[in-house]
Each structure stands twice: as structure tokens, then as C-alpha cells.
Write a structure and sequence with these properties.
279 residues, mainly alpha, Four Helix Bundle (Hemerythrin (Met), subunit A), 2 domains, 10 helices, 67% helix, disordered N terminus
Length: 279
């Protein structure tokens, strides 16, 4: 049992999930943690030791992590290309499990609803990873067969000491990018007749809206706490941590559903146009 030896502190359990290196073990621990939280067996203990300095999360020896520019671009017309796409999304979901648990572990003295939101996200991401791993197996591959990059976790390291930046930039920029690009992937795969992958991506797209919305909710919470304007602060953080290079187009309906306001969407669109013009 996850709560054996009186392990009832949610922060400690989050760290245990975060540190697990075997994907199957990470998924098992994640699902058990979520069920224990639902059952009232876990709580964020204010006496819990302070979080350790951020380092690499638990992950298997493969995939090999390379610079994003070194990840080969494969067309979807071949089975290998479709497998590589599924693997890339699986890698994002695996990272998202770690990011959600780190949000639980790293940031203390939050409302109970904050911890529930991110534990729920971790549980969803684990389920997504399992679905994608199953699809990879159907395509004759496994997680780790293709190289991947570490952009999502790199942002976790950069925002480790700033909860406002973490909520702004990981869910509302990096993960929100999935809302923008997934509909196009679905359309191309549907045209190719890959209905099995399409069905998985449709589930992920639907559920990721709620995850980005959780980021919006707790980003606004941080801004209200600090007495700062959420829109201006968002773009200041975007500039300070990521520069101004943005890629569009944006899935405006999904982003609205995830809590983006019109001023944010207008400014994001303008920045993307500026970035394109500068190329």
C-alpha cells in the first residue's frame, strides 16, 4: 500500500511518485496516490520537510534526451513516422506526470484545492501515457525507442523558486501548445485512417483543456496574492523566461475554455506575428 509506514503526507508521496524511474511503477504509484487522496488518506502536512533542490526527475535510461533540434522529423505517411509521433506525445505525457507531482511537492502552504488539482492532473497524465504506450506496442515499438528532448522539465528547473512563473509558463505556455497542435495531428491521422491514434488524441485534447485551466486558476491565485495584474505579469514572465519567440496559430476556443482572456489571446497572436516577421 502507498500509505504503509504511516506515509500520509501528500508531499512525501508526491516525491515518491516523482522519483520513480520505472514508468510502470510511476503509473502505479500515481494512481494509488490519487485514490488515497480521494479517500482522505493523504494531506499536505505543514510540518513536512522543505523540498529538496530541484534535479532530474525519476525516469528510465531511455529515451535518450537530445537537443530539440536533433530530434528527427518524420512524416506521418509511414508506420515508423506515426510511431515516432505517438512516442513524442507519450514523452510529453510522461514529463507532465513529473511536472504535476513536482507542483505538489515543491510549492507549500497552498489551499487543499491546489493539491487536489495537480494530483488529479498527474493521474490523468499517467492514464494518457498508458494509452499511448499501448498504442506504441500495437505499432511495434515501446517508450524509449526514439530520441526525445527535455524542454518541459527544463522549464520546471527554471521556475523552481517562483510558483507564479511555474503556473504561468508550464501549463499556460508549454502544455497549452498541445491545445494548438493536437487538432492538426488528429486531422492528418484521420486522413491516413489511423483511427486508433485519433481516438487517444481526442481524449487527451479534451482533458488537457482542464489541465491548462488549472494552471490559469492557480496563476490567477498567485497574482491576486501578490497584488499584480495577471495579463501584464504573464507577458513579463514570458519575456523574462522564454524571450518573445512564439509560434502560432493558437486554438482560440480551447484557450478561452482554459481561462485565457481576449487581451491575452490578442497579445499572443500579435507576438506570434512579430516572431514570424523576424524570421
Amino acid at each position: 500500500m502507498l500509505t504503509e509506514n504511516s506515509m500520509t503526507d501528500l508531499h512525501a508521496v508526491a516525491k515518491r511518485c516523482l522519483d520513480a524511474t520505472d514508468p510502470a511503477e510511476k503509473l502505479r504509484l500515481t494512481h494509488e496516490a490519487w485514490q488515497a487522496l480521494l479517500a482522505g488518506e493523504l494531506r499536505a502536512d505543514r510540518a513536512s520537510p522543505s523540498p529538496e533542490p530541484i534535479g532530474a526527475p525519476g525516469r528510465p535510461t531511455k529515451p535518450q534526451l537530445v537537443n530539440a533540434r536533433q530530434v528527427p522529423q518524420r512524416g506521418l505517411g509511414s508506420a515508423e513516422g506515426r510511431a515516432a509521433l505517438v512516442h513524442a506525445v507519450a514523452h510529453i505525457e510522461f514529463n507532465a506526470i513529473n511536472l504535476a507531482w513536482d507542483a505538489v511537492y515543491r510549492y507549500r502552504d497552498k489551499p487543499d484545492a491546489y493539491y487536489r488539482d495537480w494530483a488529479s492532473c498527474a493521474n490523468d497524465e499517467a492514464r494518457h501515457f498508458a494509452m499511448l504506450s499501448g498504442r506504441l506496442a500495437e505499432l511495434g515499438h515501446a517508450y524509449g525507442d526514439f530520441d526525445a528532448h527535455d524542454g518541459l522539465w527544463a522549464m520546471a528547473e527554471k521556475t523552481a523558486d517562483n510558483d507564479t512563473a511555474r503556473m504561468a509558463l508550464v501549463p499556460r505556455v508549454l502544455e497549452a501548445r498541445g491545445l494548438d497542435v493536437t487538432p492538426g495531428m488528429i486531422e492528418r491521422l484521420r486522413h491516413l485512417g489511423d483511427t486508433a491514434t485519433v481516438a487517444i488524441l481526442e481524449v487527451i485534447l479534451h482533458e488537457e483543456v482542464a489541465h491548462v485551466a488549472a494552471g490559469t486558476r492557480w496563476y490567477h491565485h498567485c497574482c491576486e496574492r501578490d497584488g499584480v495584474d495577471p495579463v501584464d505579469t504573464f507577458f513579463a514572465l514570458l519575456r523574462d523566461y522564454m524571450g518573445v519567440s512564439l509560434r502560432g496559430p493558437f486554438n482560440l476556443p480551447a484557450r478561452r475554455e482554459a481561462g485565457f482572456v481576449e487581451e491575452e489571446l490578442d497579445r499572443l497572436t500579435a507576438l506570434a506575428l512579430e516572431s514570424r516577421a523576424a524570421l
